[in-house]
């Protein structure tokens, strides 16, 4: 049976009295690469831990094709989370890490893992404890990309990786994605680097899911409008401005919900599209001002 849809319904999480996630509802489908973005401490890792059953929602439900994932080994065999926290003994060798994962996930691609290890110059006989931070991340990434689960979650997958290794990782990730039907969810702060990989983006802020949108659509309606303050304000009147910055003589307003095509653009007003990182900043600034 192929499983295709992971669904969160009104998932909330609090640690003792501290609320971290509030009524998060979203769906993840196979065949797409998703970005899970948010400022530091907004609950991304917590959410990924809930999705992979390492922790439990305080409220709400997580299902895989309609079946609750809680202690559901069939469902959990289709969900893999790579994160900073690992439960492997420090003395474990890379090759044994592959074996350990192969023992809990069916059809782990050993051959693929060894090929990638070679590509990254990672010695499979090395112990995890003897590796540098970046190389230890690589060992875990290789494992994640060769697990034959349908939902792969990568929490800060480039932690400690140098620029060349990050490029290799992005290439390997795409190759692995294209060879499968899986869903990959990447949680990262390196937004510009992953922009071209992502089809869909989730943004968490102030405990809530504040964006759940295809990247192409978001970028098509995200703009920076700049010029003399009075003209910028006049042009944007009534539109949903996320936030603005101002230096004498120049105001820039950011918005992620589209412009009104019928309006005439004043001569001194300049309109530019935002990239994903700029759209992320605009959205999180907007949330911050709403909660001031
Ligand atoms: N086991 C726990 N007990 C108490 N509080 C926790 C626990 N785990 C996480 N938190 C709190 O939940 C909040 C969200 O943490 P989380 O690690 O999920 O954020 P994040 O978005 O992944 O952050 P970052 O981008 O900085 O890695 C933080 O305030 C953190 O202190």
Automatic annotation (TrEMBL):
PROSITE patterns: ABC_TRANSPORTER_2. InterPro entries: AAA+_ATPase, ABC_transporter-like_ATP-bd, ABC_Transporter_VariousFunc, P-loop_NTPase. It comes from Ligilactobacillus equi DPC 6820. One of its GO terms (molecular function) is ATP hydrolysis activity. Keywords: ATP-binding, Nucleotide-binding, Transport. Signal peptide: none annotated. Residues 6-231 form the ABC transporter domain. CDD domains: ABC_DR_subfamily_A. The lineage of its organism: Bacteria, Bacillati, Bacillota, Bacilli, Lactobacillales. It holds the Pfam family ABC_tran. This is ABC transporter ATP-binding component.
